[in-house]
Every structure is written in C-alpha cells, then in structure tokens.
Amino acid sequence: MEIPKELINKAYEALENARDTGKIAKGTNEITKTIDRGKAVLVYIAEDVQPKEIVAHIPLICEEKSVPYIHVPRKDELGGAVGIDVPTASACIVDPGKGKKLVDEIIKKLNELKK
C-alpha cells in the first residue's frame, strides 16, 4: 500500500504530539507487548529496517488485534519523532493526548487506503 507523503507527515506530527502530551512506546519488543496488551492506538513501522524479519511480525499482530499501523520510510526519522537520538524500527501511540483528533483522521485515511 502506497502511503502519501502528506499522510506520513501528519503521522509524524501525531506521534510528536503524543510524545509531548500523551504516551508513546518505542522499540520492537515494547511495541509487540503494547499491541498484545491492547493498548496501542496507532503503530509505526520503519520500511528501511534490515533484516526485515525484525518487524515482519508487527503487521500480522496489528491485523489480528485490529490495530491500525502505518509504514514510514526511515527509522532515523522515526527515532527523531519519538525524541531519541538513535533510529528505531517501530513505535506506537498509546495515548494520543492533545493529538486525538489528528490520530482519528490518520486512522480514517489509512482505512480508506486499505479498501
């Protein structure tokens, strides 16, 4: 599924809002646990992860638990959006904080793209 650049930018903005006013999780192990526990609102997966197997299970778990997810181009940008100085393969929003409306809009657009 091809994600428009505009939607990716909004997704980064929502992640930064959640980082500042809500709650996020970062790193593949933490993301996996957060999804399993039913606490993830929106999951982010970097496309440039090597080897791909590191994050290959995340979309499957998201589909199983009905959690929306978005692929973003680069793990270094994702790391920056979550507020760390190192790349991260995945992240998620647990509590969108003040960005709830934006997160809802992103999820709606992702659902439209899947159709």
Write the layout of secondary structure elements.
Elements: H1 5-21, E1 23-26, H2 28-36, E2 42-46, H3 57-65, E3 69-72, H4 75-82, E4 90-95, H5 100-114
Parallel strand pairs: 2-3
Antiparallel strand pairs: 1-4, 2-4
Helix pairs in contact: 1-5, 2-3
Report on the structure:
- The radius of gyration is 13 Å and the shape is globular.
- The termini are close together.
- It has one domain (5-114): Ribosomal protein L30/S12 (60s Ribosomal Protein L30, Chain: A).
- The protein has 115 residues and is an alpha+beta fold.
- It contains five helices and four strands.
Biggest sheet, strands in spatial order? 1-4-2-3
Q: Domains counted in the coordinates: how many?
A: 1
**Helix/strand class:** alpha+beta
CATH class category name = Alpha Beta
Top keywords for this entry?
115 residues, alpha+beta, 60s Ribosomal Protein L30, Chain: A, 5 helices
